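Q&A log
Question type: sequence-to-structure
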Amino acid sequence: MPSTTILVLGGGVGGMIAANEIRRQLPAAHRVMLVEKNAQHAFAPSFLWLMTGDREPDEIRRPLAGLLRRGVELVHAEVVGIDPVLRKVRTSATEIAYDHLVVALGADLAPDAIPGLAAASHTFFTFDGATRLRDALSGFSRGRIAVVVSALPYKCPGAPHEGAMLIADYFRRRGLSPKVHVHLFTPEPQPMPVAGPQLGEAVRSMLEAKRIEFRPLHRLSSVDPVSRELVFENGQRFNYDLLVAVPPHRAPKAVVAGGLTNQTGWIPVDPQTMRTGQNGVYAIGDVTAIPIPGRWKPDVPLMLPKAGVFAHAQAEVVAQRIVAEIAGRPCRATFCGDGYCMLEAGEDLAGFAFGNFFAEPAPRVQLRQIGKAWHLGKVLFEKWWLAPVGIRRSLIGRILMAGGRIYGIPVAL
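Response status: OK
Response body:
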């Protein structure tokens, strides 16, 4: 069997799982390479805990090299060009030829896309942003906090609602609830509309219980950092004292320049296999565009949410398919559209939403009753995810993995 090079772009959830699983299943004669510009891997689901001071920065990040299997070649560089015809990727460090390519570059944040937003806002969608927001919250004692979903689509459909609830709970713990008022704005008609009206109403009730003012159908147009005023496309205006934003998202420039995106601005893939229209190229995770049954509006189809749980499952499917291609055997592995979300509500409580997003005629998603067990499940998964590969495979790792599966979390060694 001739040697091949499998190149994975991006060291987030999808990229790490894909590289590790391909390396685990392939003989050592084949090269598995991963390109990632950041030497440290930060666990994004814990950014909310970093924001509220429940985690220290070094508790939720690890050197990426320690999370990869032996034999995965790590290239610390930025992807600057993709040529799917010549099967080459240009990075800030070198040019790499590949036989199989997995694009897992995620979504870039683009706060500059909305006038005034970058200068005026904080965010918990990045490690550094969550750290700065923690400091801003600690110095805040009175006024109106606006949590704003600035554009669609965005990563993790539950994150804005979790963020608003955890911020409200943070000030409750400080005894400042009567003085601090949290408002949540979104262009969507309800919380997490892709999951259906029943889940949306359940999340709305959770927000109301925290005395959070939920304002749907508010698409942000601009921000005035001087007067601290939000301007929305529906003509509404709102004065804030602290602005926490989910910035607009867009595909990385190298993906767009490489001709991999379509009119959505993201990479179209086969929903079951994650193949792109380019030979030998797969794409997984936030960088993809996958239509699902149902309509958000009469003329707007639903799209699979951008979330780590999907990137994880897609990576396992792609790994099996690439290994089968190299071995010359058929592969039946497919991405089934199942997903879940642990929705943090503060006070060590969380809900557990799960369902099938490929279900006809629309996604079927349920929300389990809020309780401490689901919060514990998220903590278990955090500890497992940040453990070095060797520990993941040890007895401790297997105990954490078993605990995760009790809560319905699929994890791979």
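Response note: The first helix runs from residue 13 to 25.
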